[in-house]
Amino acid sequence: MRIAIDAMGGDHAPRAHVDSALAAAAEWPDTQLILVGNPEKIQPLLGSDAPGNISIEPASEVIESDDEPVKAVRRKADSSMVVAGRMVKEGRADAMISSGNTGALMATGLLVVGRMAGIERPGLAAMFPTLDNRGLLALDMGANMDAKPEQLLQYALMGSIYRSKVHGIAKPRIGLLNVGTEAAKGNELTKAAFDLFEQAPINFVGNVEARDVLEGVCDVIVCDGFSGNILLKALEGAASSIFKLLREELTSSLKAKLAAAVLKPSFRRVRDRMDYNEYNGAPLLGIKGLVVKGHGSSDAKAMKTAIRQTRTAIGNRLIASLADEFSGK
Could you say which residues form the signal peptide (predicted)? Predict the structure, then answer.
């Protein structure tokens, strides 16, 4: 399998992408990793003894984080992100990963790779850690700020297939993000979506409140992009604030420091269970090829996780399964 990596996108590019590629190449020798970007910046980091399953695809431009997405994709045809997308479209790569500009990546998916037949609007999916260690797939996380009930149903179907194919869950439990668990709760969008979900061939478990999403009550949570992006950032912000508060309290006095020393292994396990690096790699579902978004601040560990998730999706024919579902085969 061949994975194109946008080596110039993200806060820690290209170092994090090169380091992750080196680690992944050693662990998975059957995978061809193609670093897309400026060879003059990538090659020195690879060194002279890089493994044979790593190569460089030259790209002379970079889409910056503050670039206007659609304009950047159209005007920067030789950017590392667009070149990687073109490789997927042309069949020279089985998937692409980028930690760059999210809006530009979505534009690349739509304008370069192309939307899958039968899909109205692609959705950005993201994995969250849960207390039962099964993880939670959430979509849409911001690809579309406004959505129709029928589009939420498509997200539910795509999310169910993703968890089945990539994570091996036989009957993924699908939840609908709402302000209450009762069927009559919510706005017109969620009420209409609820009715569609009940009639669909999915394992629908009903409405789920935001406070319960990490409790393991479902395997997929569906929402519009506006609500999903707020949920994502609220959870990330809450986790960051809690760990910051803990650090302050556990270093506030000698007694607290002694207690922290005793509890350090437990705190480390909690941190590891909630580490987004272990869940990095959000696929843009509904695109004709596999397009994966890495967190903008992804380090080498997080990028390797994204590569692992992408390999699994390729190996389990995720895109083909989605295409079959929505083409009526």
Answer: none
Q: Are residues 72 and 158 in the same domain?
A: no
User: Quick one: pLDDT at residue 107?
Assistant: 93
- Give the separation between CA 95 and CA 1, rounded to whole angstroms: 9
Q: Are 152 and 236 in contact (CB under 8 A)?
A: no
Asked which of 277, 304, 319 is the last residue of a domain, the reply is 277
**308 vs 34, 109, 119, CA distance in Å?**
15, 20, 26
Q: How many residues does the chain have?
A: 329
CATH code of the domain in which 115 resides: 3.40.718.10
164, 270: one domain: yes
pLDDT in tens, 128-176: 888 888 889 999 988 888 899 999 999 999 999 999 988 889 999 999 9
Q: Count the Cβ atoms, other than its own, within 10 Å of residue 67.
A: 18
Q: Say whether 125 sits in a helix, a strand or coil.
A: coil
Domain that holds residue 254: 121-277
| Residue 133 and residue 206 in one domain | yes
- Counting runs of H as helices and runs of E as strands, what totals does the chain give? 11, 12
Write the CB contacts of 320 (distance below 8 Å, at least 6 apart in sequence).
none
pLDDT tens digits, one per residue of 13-45:
999 999 999 999 999 999 999 999 999 999 999
User: Is the CB of residue 174 less than 8 Å from the CB of residue 158?
Assistant: no
147 shares its domain with 218: yes
Identify each DSSP E strand in the chain by its residue range: 2-6, 32-37, 54-58, 95-98, 123-124, 126-128, 136-139, 173-177, 203-208, 220-222, 282-285, 290-293
Q: Would the CA dihedral through 131, 137, 141, 146 be positive or negative? A: negative
Do 256 and 305 belong together in one domain?
Answer: no
Looking at the fold, whether 17 and 30 belong to one and the same domain comes out as: yes
Parallel, antiparallel or unpaired: strands 32-37 and 2-6: parallel
